[in-house]
Specification:
Layout lengths: L5 H4 L6 H9 L1 H12 L5 H12 L8 H10 L4 H25 L1 H10 L3 H14 L1 H9 L4 H10 L4 H57 L1
């Protein structure tokens, strides 16, 4: 009888096809990991830190953490939305101060990350629309951090800045939390089902925008 060694019995199951599948499903893996973070004992602290820093320099929006945290703790959706709003506005005030006292030091960073065009647009919006400019930046996917720094650099009135930030940021985060809270598991299942398609679509769109930006 020929003895088959254990090393001969085990064969690698990694093929180019399985490697490709793993790459394609990278966003669902990241989503699952973030969902795990959402039930961490210090999850609310992480949410507050992300919300604060995103308003002045951090690139990741707090919605990414707010949504799964609301799904994991649906009864706390108002608290989570309020926490995200308050810390985001405080971070916006930090960006405002940066714009007032350190705009010359910040400009090289804005140029490096390609935000100079957004910055100039923000300044023009403040001149034309005031409160509505900061509201739009707070509610829409427009980079809010650029507008907070630009508001400080343009010496926008502090009262309309705070009011626009509270209304814009609050409307956005309470909407996200409410949709997840009352949509519940069905929404989560749909997000989980299409997260990879959504992720790759966003990456492709960003790549196209960068290409068009350079033309």
């Amino acid at each position: 009888m020929i003895r088959v060694l254990p090393s001969m019995q085990r064969t690698s199951t990694t093929t180019p096809m399985t490697s490709t599948i793993r790459l394609v499903k990278i966003f669902s893996k990241l989503y699952d990991k973030v969902l795990g973070w959402s039930v961490h004992p210090y999850a609310t602290r992480y949410l507050g830190v992300v919300s604060f820093t995103e308003s002045s320099f951090f690139p990741i929006p707090p919605d990414v953490l707010l949504a799964p945290m609301t799904l994991a703790q649906p009864k706390r959706w108002i608290y989570l939305a309020a926490l995200t709003t308050v810390t985001s506005v405080l971070g916006g005030l930090f960006g405002y101060v940066i714009g007032q006292v350190a705009i010359d030091a910040v400009m090289p960073w804005l140029q490096k990350v390609g935000y100079v065009g957004h910055f100039e647009t923000a300044q023009q919006w403040f001149a034309d629309y005031g409160f509505w400019a900061i509201f739009a930046a707070g509610f829409t996917p427009i980079p809010y951090k650029v507008f907070t720094v630009a508001a400080g650099a343009a010496s926008m009135g502090l009262a309309p800045f705070i009011l626009g930030s509270v209304v814009g940021r609050g409307a956005r985060f309470f909407l996200v939390a409410a949709l997840v809270r009352f949509g519940g598991a069905p929404i989560e299942r749909q997000i989980r089902r299409y997260i990879d398609a959504i992720g790759w679509t966003v990456l492709v769109l960003l790549a196209l925008l960068l290409i068009l930006w350079q033309i």
